[in-house]
Specification:
The chain is mainly alpha-helical. It has a domain of 232 residues. 71% of the residues lie in helices and 0% in strands. Helix 4 packs antiparallel against helix 5 and helix 13 runs antiparallel to helix 14. It is globular. It is found in: Cell membrane. It comes from Shinella sumterensis. Keywords: Cell membrane, Membrane, Plasmid, Transmembrane, Transmembrane helix.
Length: 332
Amino acid sequence: MPISHSPFSSSGTFRETLRRKHRVKGGDGLILLALAVVPLLGDHYYALGTQVLVAVIFALSLDLLVGYTGVVTLGHAAFFGVGAYAAGIASQHGWGEPISGLIIGGVASAAVGLVVGAIVLRTSRFTLLMLTLCTVFLFGEVANKATSVTGGVDGLLGIETWPVFGLFEFDLMGEVGYYFSAAVFLLVFAAMRRLVHSPLGQSIMAIRDNPGRASAIGMAVRPRQLLVFVISAFLAGLAGALQAEVNQFVGLKDISFELSATILVMLALGGSGRLYGAIIGPVVYLVAQDFLSKDNPVMWELWLGIILVTLVLFAPGGLTRLFVRIKESSGR
């Protein structure tokens, strides 16, 4: 009588089944390892770690739009800033609960994204790029002029974040803020992975590659693009709200073209259209920035620029694509 083998009869088969069903990758272990290492480096690294995690969440939201949908934008910081201001204003009016504050920021940005997306997605290419650029300038100027609500150039002060679950109070060293940011990042990363491998994710990549053919086979191109635009705005607002809660301050830089350009550079550095690229890019950029600014407070931007130009020349598809090419070459 033949023996039927269970898919879990060996550890190797079990790992393959787990990898196939849940898309567990070796990079996931490295992510968890990096998150665990930061507290071991010392208390002064909590702030940098939190800054990196916020930037990664923001980059993931942009990657969903640029890398997976093919909609290039220069105004993504508008949604980041809206989320930050929404959470900050809610706190100023007596609601500082951190988890619901994230939702408030995300929903506010999603609502703005719905309106903005319905307008800009009617265009394409250069026109779309300019409209997104106008969006961030418009919202930045609104934040600048509405001083009674946003604080204008002085920023939004008096933000108070309540303890997480009523137990873990945000401390001066930033330990609770770091762990809270890490938890939010892991949830966002898991949701993003699920999304890009879902039927919706596969369809938007088909639209990105050939919108004409996708429309010809019956895909609703613009509604799907708008849906992803709103989801991307929600995640960007989530990142903005997280930064407002952790830093307890929101300023005009959080809704500026400079921030839009910086996060786009981070994504290009890591590689768009790959989830790990949206993680590697901000990590490399911000760690290099922190190291160079301490070593050379005057000329650090020059050296950072040289590093970025070198990476672009030798890794035009981003660091993740460079790693893939090296892996493929070593496997031959």
